[in-house]
Amino acid sequence: xxxxxxxxxxxxxxxxxxxxxxxxxxxxxxxxxxxxxxxxxxxxxxxxxxxxxxxxxxxxxxxxxxxxxxxxxxxxxxxxxxxxxxxxxxxxxxxxxxxxxxxxxxxxxxxxxxxxxxxxxxxxxxxxxxxxxxxxxxxxxxxxxxxxxxxxxx
Length: 154
Fold this sequence. Notes:
alpha+beta; six-stranded antiparallel beta sheet; 7 helices; globular
C-alpha cells in the first residue's frame, strides 16, 4: 500500500523522486493524472486499468461522465520510474497545478497523490479540525468485524 507523507524536490527537468517504499509497486510503470483537488494522482498500471474500465463503462451521453473522462483520461500520462527513482511530471500538469520545485507525496492506499506544498498545508488544516471531522465522517462506516465475528465466519 501507498502510505505516509513525503516532501521531495522537483528538478529543473520536472522529475520527482518517488519515495523508496513506493517504488517496489511501480516496477511495471504507473499512470499519472490530474486529481480532483488540485493535485496529481499516481496509480499502478493495474489500478489505473480498473479505473479506466469503470470510466469506459459509463454512458457517453451523460455530460458528467464526459467531464470525468476528460479530467482523468485527457490528463493521463504513462510514466516509468528511472534508475534514480524519479518520474517525470509533464509540464502541462506542473503548470496547471503550480508545481514548481517542491512537492508533497501523500499515500492513499491504492494510489498516491502529489501536492503543491501550500495546497497540502491547507488540506492538513482541514484535517486538524476535530469538530468538522466528526460531522464530515459521521456517515462513513469504519467498523470492522471483531475477532468473534471472524471466528464465526469460519
